[in-house]
């Protein structure tokens, strides 16, 4: 998607509704719009996506079981927003761990004390 596209570039009324994802993606709002943008961002692409509503033959919106059958028929992969949230959080944890390890490596001697204070877990580096 071009960076200079505006709402005026989309013909309306119609069946295309431009949506804007929350800045924090699925970690801020667990929605389809945010999931689409997070997936393209994780792929190294512009965080923009086209999302669609799949309708059953009877005109009703397809639900999870319907979507699984559709995906199987068309050899498509299915992911959930919950799985995407877990993946993003796991990647952030890895990044934070790497940053913390590199900070510790810069210290000549480090002693870590862990203790509980009320309901909080605390680690002190000395």
Which properties best describe this structure?
single chain, 126 residues, alpha+beta, DHBP synthase, two-stranded antiparallel sheet, 2 strands, flat, disordered C terminus
Mean pLDDT value: 80
Shape: flat
Question: Helix count?
Answer: 3
CATH architecture field of one domain: Alpha-Beta Complex
| Strand order in the largest sheet | 1-2
| CA distance, first residue to last residue | 50 Å
Total strand count, please?
2
So what's the CATH class of one domain?
A: Alpha Beta
Order of helices and strands: HHHEE
What CATH calls the topology of one domain is DHBP synthase
State the low-pLDDT regions, or none.
Answer: 122-126
List the helices and strands and how they pair.
Blueprint: H1 32-42, H2 64-73, H3 81-105, E1 112-117, E2 120-125
Antiparallel strand pairs: 1-2
Describe this protein's structure.
The chain has 126 residues and is an alpha+beta fold. It has three helices and two strands; from the N terminus they run αααββ. A two-stranded antiparallel sheet has the order 1-2.
Gist?
The chain has 126 residues and is of the alpha+beta class. The protein is built from three helices and two strands.
């Amino acid at each position: 998607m071009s960076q200079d596209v505006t709402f005026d570039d989309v013909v309306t009324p119609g069946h295309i509704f431009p949506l804007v994802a929350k800045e924090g993606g699925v970690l801020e709002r667990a929605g389809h719009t945010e999931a689409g943008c997070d997936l393209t961002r994780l792929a190294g692409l512009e965080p923009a996506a086209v999302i669609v509503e799949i309708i059953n033959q009877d005109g009703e919106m397809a639900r999870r079981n319907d979507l699984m059958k559709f995906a199987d028929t068309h050899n498509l992969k299915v992911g959930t927003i919950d799985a995407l949230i877990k993946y993003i959080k796991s990647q952030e944890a890895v990044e934070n761990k790497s940053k913390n390890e590199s900070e510790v490596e810069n210290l000549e001697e480090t002693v870590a004390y862990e203790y509980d204070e009320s309901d909080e877990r605390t680690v002190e580096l000395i």
